[in-house]
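Write out the 3D structure for:
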Amino acid sequence: MVKSENYKSWRVDIETMVLKNVELYRDSKIEKVDIEVIDGVISAVDKSIDNKDSIDCTGTLLLNGVTDLSIYPKDRKIANIQDTQQRAFENGVTELVIQADLDNLVDREERLTLLKSMSFKGVNSRYLFSGVDKDENLTNISILSKYGDGVSIKSDIDGNQLRRVFEYAQMLNLPLFVKIQNREINSDGLLHNTERAFKLGMPTRHESGEIIEVAKIIELSKLFKVKTVLQGVTEKRAIDIIEKAKSEGAQLFLEVSIHHLINSDKIYNNFNNYTKIEPPFQSEDNRLYLLESLKKGVIDSITAGHLEVSQSFKSGSFRDAENGVCGFDSYLSIIYTELVQSGIISESRFVALLSSSDSIFGDNSTSIEVGSKASFTLFRRDRKVKISNQKSIYLDREFSGESMFTICRNSIYSEKE
C-alpha cells in the first residue's frame, strides 16, 4: 500500500485483500465471516477464505455503508469540500450527502458541477441541489436532476414554489430534503422556548413554528408521494405527528444528529460559542423524548451534525457567533458509547441506523454481497479514544470503540500501516 501525499488514506496496490474473522449483522443476527475484496469489489463472503496475505480482523464489527445525510464543508465553502469529505472518511463514513445551502447556494448547473469536480473521489458522495434560488424563484430542477441526487429546500419558502418543488420531485422521482424552519414565527430566536433560555437572557423560538412546518410538509409529502427527509426536528409534538404519518404509510425519513440525542440546553450555561448549533439543543425533557423516539424507530438516521466553523466566525458574543459544531471526531465511538453501551439501542440497530442511504435513494449501494462495491468500516469495540480537538464540544472526553479500517472506492484509511 502507498500512502497519499495529501491524505492519510491508503491506496491499494495489491489485487486481492482478504479480511478474516469479521463480525457482521444479517437479519439482526451476528455472523463471523471472511471477506475477499478484489479491485474494490467484494468477490467472496465465506466462513473461511485461504490467503497468506490476509488481515486478521478478530474483534471487529463490520459497519456497511456508514452514511451521513447532512455534510457541510468548513464555513459552507465549496473550496473546502474535499478536506471535509476526507475527514469524514477518516472517521469511518463512506456514504456522504452534500447539502445545497452553502455559501454559494447550489442552485445552478455550474455550481453543482464545480462542487462535484472539487470533491474527494475516495468516498461515495451524493449531491443535493436547491429547489429555489436565493430569491426563492424555482430553479431548473429538470436540468439539475441530471447532475445531482436530490432536491433541498427550506420548509418556509413561498407556498406556491414549495408545491411546485414537490411536483418536480414526484415527476423526476427524486428524494426531497427539507430543513424545517419558520422565520415568521421565530425570526430572531436563538434558543428554544425553555426556562433555561429565559434565565440566560436569550431570545427564544416557539415550538409552534416547528409543529406547523412539519405538519405542512407531511401533507405535501403524502399528497405527492415523495420520499421526504426531515431535517432539524426536535419538538415533541412535531415528532408525534411524524410518527403518526409514518404509521399511515407516508414516505418520511427523520434525521437527527447524535449531539441532539445526548446533549440538552444545559450545555449553554458557559456560553461556549462552539456549542452553538442549528437547531439549538433542547430541554432535557425533549432530549429524553428524542431518545424514546429513537427506541421506537421513529428516527431513521443519526448524523454527525458536522459543520466546522472558523474561529473568526465563532469569536465575539454568543448571539453573534455562527452556528456549527465539529462532529466527525470519533463520531462512531460517541454513538456506540452513548447509545449502545448505555443500552438505549441494540448493536444491530446501531449498524442499521448508520446505513440509511439505500432506503432513501433506492440503489442498494451498501450491501455486503458478492459483486457489490466494497464500502464499509471495521469498528473495534474494545478500543478507547479521547477527543483532543480544541473545537469539539467533547474535548478531553473518552469514548469506547474506534474506526480502525475504512474502505471505499478502493481507497483505504487505517490508523496503522
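Residues 66-361 form a domain with the TIM Barrel fold (CATH 3.20.20.140).
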